[in-house]
Amino acid sequence: MSDVDWGPWLQPDERIVWQGRKENRSTALGALGVLALFVALPYFNDGSERVQLAVKAAPWIVVFIIASLLYMAFHQAYYAITQHRALLLSTAPWRKPRLESIRLAEAEAVKHPRTPLIFLHRQTRKPVVQMWLGQTEADHVLSIIKSGSP
To answer: Please, what sign has the CA dihedral across residues 150, 14, 76, 120?
Structure first.
């Protein structure tokens, strides 16, 4: 599922028990739908004030959506659970890879509908690792954590 080499990021006694990655497909498809709407909007201009305002804003919205799609195309987020930690590795061509991690013994995993699976630090209550997963996959990761095995 994940095409990243976790070796450099693992401690000597760690092994991966689950791995995944952020899927941008649904977000990109939604953005493409909005993009199509704003590209086509000038052709349906009926002269009303609202449509005139939307037509004026359309070029900026189109630029924003295209920039967002380009960002999604090149920025990748990879997730892993080891027997000791939750890991998030972010990669992009314009910077060095960045690893965020938290020891499972120090974390509380929280998942609400339409939100990422969040690993909060038990003492500070601050989010350390966020995994954008579907509900089924998040439930699977939570069951792995609770059972302590894959």
So the answer is: positive
pLDDT in tens, 69-127: 777 777 788 999 999 999 999 888 888 999 999 999 999 999 988 888 999 999 999 99
Q: Is 32 left (phi over 0), alpha (psi -120 to 50) or beta?
A: alpha
Tell me the residue type at 121: H
Q: How many angstroms separate the CA atoms of 46 and 34, rounded?
A: 19
pTM: 0.71
Answer whether 140's CB lies under 8 Å from 109's CB: no
Q: Nearest CA to 27 among 75, 87, 60, 79?
A: 75
- Do residues 128 and 38 lie in contact, with contact meaning Cβ atoms separated by under 8 Å? no
Residue whose entry in the numeric block shows the structure tokens 């630029």: 63
